[in-house]
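Backbone shape codes
____________________
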Amino acid sequence: MAVVATDELVDRIIAAQRSFAAYAEFVHGWRPRPHQVEWFRALQALVDGKLTLPDGRASHKLAITAFPGSGKTDTIIEFIGYFIGRMVTAGKRPQIGLISYADSTATGRSDAVRDLVESRQEYRMVFNVRPDKGKKWAAEEWSVWHAERGVKDPTVRAAGLQGSILSYRFPSLIIIDDPHRIEAAGTEVLLAGAAEKAMVWRNYNMAVKTRGVAGVTPIVLISTRLAADDLFGRLMEVEDDWFVIHTPARGEDGESAWPPDAAPNGTPCGISTVELGLLEERDPISFTTQYMALPPQAGAAIFSVWTPWAWPQAEEVVGVFQAWDTATTKSTYSDYSAMVEGALLRDGRVFIARVVAKQMATIALMETIKAEFARAQEFWGKRPLILVEARGSGIPVVDMLRASTELPIMARDIPLGRTDLITRATAVSEKFISGRVVGPWEEWAPWLDGYRTEMRAFPRGRHDDMVAATVLLLEHIYSGYGGPLPTYTVSYGRYW
């Protein structure tokens, strides 16, 4: 039995050396919660040099936005320890910058990693990493032993974005854990803290970004969103090579992403769906920003512009699509099933031609889908493609239609890293603003009043079914259907 136990231990140690998830379980006895699984996968890909963007480009930049109390900092502390161990084992000298909004915050997290390296028996069983106390051994700066002697730069240097970090270089790894103070945002997250946000942006560009090796040094930004123009928001405006993971506190099923549980030491963790509801009721803007990881744009709804246009001629139409957001129950309080029909035009615009939204049981929904398909085919002289989201109630609807009809149906997966509707809606809202999404005048569309009411109220309206169908439609078309779309500049638009 002793031999078996030893063999098992060796296997676990080997697994911990190779896998960040196995390492966290061996050293600290905890596994990533469901909302953290994607973080662990991306961090593993980063340390392995295999982080890849959805378009196939390699990336060395990882950005994670997550709600308060989601375990961001614990994950980062674990990852830094793992990263150091991997580098030392490979015969490399780690030089890591650990940055937060304040010196005290950064050094507190650095101290946790330092204690792990110095005192955690399980850690030293996995990695042969020793403190180098011949150099400075303080929370703000410390080193592990390495064969390359005489190097002044420490293994870890911790500092706030207001601290003095200009004299150090961090070629191995840069970690930015919560670059903004939450209290700096205040209740009016879009207006308060402007000076602090400007300072963070300036110091990132001058004192952090330049400390690594351009195009090589891995960078991890993990934060709670505080405003549209926080560090994450500004980076997304100017850089397109970040692998992004949004982690909202509540899933599309309305339930908490981390239901309360307990850590191995018995410490309560997580947040209940009821608690989330109370937070949202107390301060909807801060909740949407911090807990749903998506701040609203200053002074505007997500969908604020509608561009009326002449009805397209048949020869202008490249393809026709009917996107469905399905609900399969019929009750006073159930969601609607909604269909948004869009015609892709040769100049790259999408013409919203028809919207249907009503409560329907499954059989009625199936008949409506078939009827709308037949109507559109006759009207356009083209077979529309039916799009249904590949999850929830959409899956059985697709299965039943495929079994009983020959309709062209696509069960479409949601984009990687964009699981909540607010995030997805924001990603396509620019198409409305730029005039690439157009539609008929009011007199041609009796459905337009209800449609624009729901779109304009999102994300605080009672229903979001038409929004969800619109997002699904545009995600499909602008993901590359028919090759790259031509650019188009709007010549007329108005706020609706």
In short: The mean pLDDT is 84.
